[in-house]
């Protein structure tokens, strides 16, 4: 009896740089969208409103395994159902090959079947890129996020969804764009574990997270500040948030 060989996960690129994997959209037959982020060939995240699930490739089994899951919508902590999210959650552990050709991404299982097809989302000034929140307005001045929380966490703006972390817990919210303006609504965060700054254990981390939420909520003007940084200004021209591309 011969064991069927397991294909090691491969990333096959056709005219695409490996650091250009970024964000892809998957749509269910019902039209419900989900966002697929391929940060690297061994780490995949799926986003739908209020939910995110990440998988990491196990180097021993060569299967994707659960890495991180979050589900809530701000203070309400409600989790709407999402058939496409659940379906992708069942499919991704079977994926062995990711094939990129132009603006299309195919996920292929170990039988050689294409189990998911996704289309690339083009990045704009703020959308479909991964950012770190470099600093935020605390009501008096700009405060460094790294000084407040330690290493900054990522934040993304994709298909009307805001997800990431304000420093403590998981960030959720919605946004819309019009020219150089962004309107952010229902931005909030919820806790999914211990929040602690080893360098400053007495730092008021929940206060900082609340201030970040306040700095994000509302209408802001997007201003470029060099190649990899943007500022979000309020209607009085004050910088509320500084984002740096990861």
Short account of what is shown:
With 246 residues, this protein is mainly β.
Question: How would you portray this structure in words?
Answer:
The protein is mainly β. The chain has 2 domains: 10-120, Lipocalin (Beta Barrel), CATH 2.40.128; 130-245, Lipocalin. Helix content is 11%, strand content 48%. It contains 3 helices and 18 strands. The strands form 2 sheets. It has a 9-stranded mixed β-sheet with strand order 1-7-8-9-2-3-4-5-6, with helices on one face. It has an 8-stranded antiparallel beta barrel with strand order 10-12-13-14-15-16-17-18. A hairpin with a 5-residue loop joins strand 2 and strand 3. The longest helix is centred in the last third of the chain and has 12 residues, at 205-216. The N and C termini lie far apart (49 Å). The model is unreliable at 1-20 (pLDDT under 50).
Give unreliable regions as ranges: 1-20
Element-level helix/strand string: EEEEEEHEEEEEHEEEEHEEE
- Look up the CATH topology of the largest domain: Lipocalin
The biggest sheet, with number of strands, parallel, antiparallel or mixed sense and barrel status, is: 9 strands, mixed
Strand fraction equals: over 45%
Number of domains: 2
Strand order of the largest sheet: 1-7-8-9-2-3-4-5-6
Give the total of beta strands: 18
CATH architecture of the largest domain: Beta Barrel
Computed CA radius of gyration, to the nearest angstrom: 19 Å
> In angstroms, what separates the terminal alpha carbons?
49 Å
| Overall geometry | globular
CATH class value of the largest domain: Mainly Beta
């Amino acid at each position: 009896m011969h064991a069927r060989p397991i294909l090691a996960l491969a990333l096959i690129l056709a005219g695409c740089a490996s650091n250009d994997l970024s964000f892809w959209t998957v749509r269910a037959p019902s039209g419900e969208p989900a966002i697929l982020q391929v940060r690297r060939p061994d780490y995949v995240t799926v986003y739908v409103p209020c939910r995110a699930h990440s998988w990491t490739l196990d180097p021993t089994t060569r299967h994707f395994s659960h890495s991180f899951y979050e589900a809530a919508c701000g203070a309400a902590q409600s989790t709407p159902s999402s058939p496409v999210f659940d379906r992708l959650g069942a499919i991704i552990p079977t994926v062995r090959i990711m094939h990129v050709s132009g603006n299309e991404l195919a996920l292929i299982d170990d039988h050689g079947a294409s189990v998911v097809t996704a289309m690339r989302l083009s990045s704009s000034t703020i959308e479909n890129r991964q950012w770190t929140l470099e600093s935020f307005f605390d009501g008096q001045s700009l405060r460094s996020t790294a000084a407040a929380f330690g290493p900054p966490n990522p934040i993304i703006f994709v298909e009307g969804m805001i997800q990431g972390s304000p420093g403590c817990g998981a960030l959720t919210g919605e946004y819309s764009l019009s020219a150089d303006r962004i309107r952010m609504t229902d931005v909030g965060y919820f806790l999914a574990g211990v929040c602690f700054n080893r360098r400053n254990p007495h730092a008021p981390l929940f206060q900082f997270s609340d201030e970040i939420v306040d700095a994000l909520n509302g209408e802001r003007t997007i201003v470029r500040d060099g190649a990899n940084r943007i500022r979000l200004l309020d209607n009085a021209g004050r910088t509320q948030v500084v984002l740096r591309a990861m």
